Every structure is written in structure tokens, then in C-alpha cells.
Input
Amino acid sequence: MTDAFDVAGAFTPAENISTATSHDAASVVAEVNADIDTPEVPNGFVTLGLASELVHAVKDLGYTQPTSVQAKTIPLALPGDADGQKAGKFIDLMVSSQTGSGKTAAFLLPVLHTLLKQQAQAEADERAAFEREVAEATARGEAPPKRPKRKDPTNPRNFKAPAPGALIVCPTRELAQQVANDAIDLVRHCRGLRIANIVGGMPYQLQIAKLQNANLVVATPGRLLDLQRSMQIKLDQVQFLVVDEADRMLDLGFSDDLAEINQLTIARKQTMMFSATFAPRIQQLAARVMREPQRITIDSPQEKHANIKQVLFWADNAHHKRKLLDHWLRDTTINQAIVFASTQIECDGLANDLQQDGFDAVALHGALSQGLRNRRLMALRNGQVQILVATDVAARGIDVPTITHVFNFGLPMKAEDYTHRIGRTGRAGRDGLAVTFAEIRDRRRIFDIEAYSRQHFKSETIPGLEPQQRFPESRPGTGASFGGRGNHGADRAPRDRNFGGGGRPGFGGNRGGNAGFADRNAAGPRIVGGGFGGDRDNGPRGGGHRDGGDNGGFSYARKGGFNDRFAGRADAAPRGGDFAARKPAFAKPSGVKPGNAGKVFVPRDTKKRVARTFD
Output
């Protein structure tokens, strides 16, 4: 019996293996049939007419279908591909879209595609010219010419100021570095296409060396103009100018720099402006530097971010707000987060406090050196830092997919910056959470953000951390309550245009009457027996009547009161001898001549000086 069980047991796994193998084979066959039956979706970037090298690079990055802003912008940015557009002609574009919608690739792909085609055409022309020279030399019976040797660009003798074909201008260093890194990822399969990044805070010699033979330059305005003025770069051959985050450019005071860059690149073929928001001043700037621009608006900032949940928490004071932030940062669903502060001092202090509380946090703001800023951003992208405490310098240009939460510990100075702040999360269709902490003094900024985004914040509370004050629900006068007191002015009776009229007291007039500022003297001069501390009617105030005249009367005649003891009037004697007799105030000492108001200044050594005589 034991041997039988042993035999049976020995054969049982084999039977199971054969059964499992048959099931696995059936599942594999089903999957293969499903793949055969389901047609493969064509690559959307191929249909846009982009070069195969760029399509391959985009596919390596994990993208096969363009976003809405890319699908509408790329065909218009390419030469001669738009409806009614002449062959080889470029049109200027103004593109407005939400953050995280793929604006960077929307202007990088068409610019790189055009540069790649121009480079291939130039190489073909050079090859044809060389072959023609070889044929002519052979016909004459001479030795064929040799190709010119490539000169070493690092040799100072061979230095030649670079003349890029495309220029991308960004307001901040972080944004410029992010755009340059994206461009380098897109040209990984392109031969001979070089990308250079020019930002402040980096050594000049290193950037000058990287500029050699650069086809596309991504720069901030300050360092770019410094290198241009020192003849290290030429901008007269720029064909494509892209201004990224144009509204931030004007906020940081780069309007004069943009005007200078516009004059230096006046012979360009195309100008594009990209931003999440376009204020009227941006449109005025575009009218000066662009030729008949075409406006493309995908998602306006007033449209709600569907994939970003926005919540608001009211705090009594800074200590209460700090407790709310500490409660949220201990949430286990946070992968990485950005905490925005209003000032650099607040940023450093908050980062130090979070480090002492055990959080993995670092600070990032404009006062830090560029090397330190780069290292901290790299640590954030590599996952070495969980919490980044930053000012608005990080509101644009940081594209880290693992950022799941954004906290507005300090509110932005401008309402449009709020859109860029919350755009650091929910990138490329992912879900995100934006939490805002506000005190009662921040209510106007909250109202401005609501008015700009046309979205109402729904305030929430945390059990055990509820605010003790009563906070507004929305802007006063919009129909919602302010602190539970009802609508302001909604149930008031209409009043006249007169100042203080219409059921309200005039300035100094009757509190219950109808007299306005214009009819205060209608009842004749008002005679008042006492002023401050003087005689008043001790009757009830409900009647609003005082001794000595009509309720609505007013007179510019002098009234008696507390100050009458300084007036020097005989009929304004002090009351009951409470004050001493009036003395002349600020009297000048007797015997002093007018004009000097005191002693004449005489130098001490006047008597010691000897009069100089000239013979």
C-alpha cells in the first residue's frame, strides 16, 4: 500500500504539470488571438508629419499619442502645413493652455523638426557641391580635392561665435534647465543637432564651450544678453524665437530685455509665445513683436482642473496653520510634495522646522546659489527628498511625476501664480491634490484667486483642529455670507447719491434723519451751547435731538467747547475754575530782534583770527 501511494504520489505532479501546461498554452493562444484581432492604434506623432528620429525619441519616453495642445499647435508651427498657408511660410502663434498639458513638447518638436530638415538639406547641398568639384577636377585630369578637416572648437585660434538657428527664452533658471533637458531627450537619435543651456549662476567659460556649434539655445534673458554683448554669441541668424511663460517674463521685469532680444532677432521667421495665462499686457507685447499671431486656447485658467482636487483650510494664526500642515504631511498617501511659501525667510524657517520634526525637507528659493539649487532639484527628481519647501521660483518648470501633493502654506502675490503652483501636481493626466492654508488676513487673496479662476473654494476642517474664528465663505456682495452675517447690501434700501443721504446720517448730522451733505445748512445755523464735555440733552438718544438747534442743522460758526480755553475769547471762560488763567503760549523772549529767533551764532575763534591784508 505504501508503494502504491508512493507511485501515485510520484505521478500526481506530472499530471498537474501537464494540466497547467495545457491551461497556459490556451491562455497564450487566447492572448495572441486577441492581439491579432485588436488593431494597433497608429502613433499620433507620425500622423503629425514629424521626423522619424523625433517620433522614435518620443516613443522611447513612453508617449505615442499627442495631447490636445500638441495636436493643434504642431501642424500650425510646421512650415506650409496649415490650411491656406503658403509652402515654406511660418506663422506666429500665441498658445495658452493649462500647466502639465505638454506645452514644452508642443514648441520643441516643430522647431527641432525644422532644424533637422534644414540640416539634412544643408548636408545634401554640401555633398552635391563636393561631388561636382570632384567631377570637374576629374574632367580636367587633376587630382580630386580633399574634404576640409574639422577644426577643433576648443582651440582659441579656431574660435567662432556661435550663431544658433533657434532660441528659447525662459524666465527662471529651473524652467530653462527643464526645457533644455527635454530637448536633449528628444534629439537622442538625431545626429549633429546640438542643444545648449545658458543660465545665470554658472561659470562663463563652461557655457561658452557648450555654445560651440549649438543649433538650439535655451536661455534666461540676463545671461544671454551678457554673452551677446561680449560677442560670445550671435543672434542675427536666429530663425525661431520661443518665449515660454511670457507673463512671468513681464512680472520679473524682463520687458526691456525682451525688447532688446526682439531687435537682435528681427530677421527671424517665426515667433511663438506659450503660457498658461495670457493677460492683456501679454497681448500688447505680442502685438509689438509678432506678425499677425494666431491665438490657440486649449484650456483657459478659468476651467477647473479635473484631475486636481483643491481644498481650503482656514487657520486662526500661524501656529494653527503650522499644525494643519504637520497633520497633512503625516499622510501616508504622500509620495512627494511641494510646500510653497511667500518669502525666502519663511521658506528657510519652515524647511528647518520640518527637518527638526523628522521630515525629509529642503528649501529652494532665489537666494541660493545655482549649484545648490541644481543639486536639490536633482535630489527631488531622484526621490532622495520627499518635501520641497519653495517660493514661486519653483512654481514653473518643475516636472516631477511623483509629486502628489501641493501645499500653499503662503499664498501667492498674484492670483495667476496659483494656477502655476497647483500645476506642479497632476502632471500628464495624473491625479493630484492641492491644499491651501489661509488666515483671516489672507481673505482678499482668496477672493482674488476665486475671481480669477471662477471657482469657489469649499473650506474644510480637521476634527480637533477646527478654527475658533468665523471665516468668510466667499467675497462680500456675491450673495454668500461673510462670517455668518448675511449678504452685504443685499437687503438694504436704496439711497440717494448725496453723501450720507438716503436714510443714513450726514457727516455730523442727525443719525436718524434724512439730511445729506448738501442740505445740512437748510435749517439755519446750528447753535450749540457745549462741545466736548459740554451740556447735552440727557434724554433718550432714540429721539436724536440735542439742545440748541434743529437736528439736521449745521453751521461753520465757532462752537464752544474744550478748546475754547486756548482761543483767547472773553466769553469762553473755564468751567467752574477747573483750569487756571490763560497764559501766553509759546511767547518769544523779550528784547530779541526778529529774524534770528534767538542768539546770533558767533564762532569761538573770532577774536583769534587775524585779518589778512593783501599789499
Q: What stands out?
A: The longest helix spans residues 103-139. Residues 104-146+159-297 form a domain with the Rossmann fold fold (CATH 3.40.50.300). The mean pLDDT is 74.
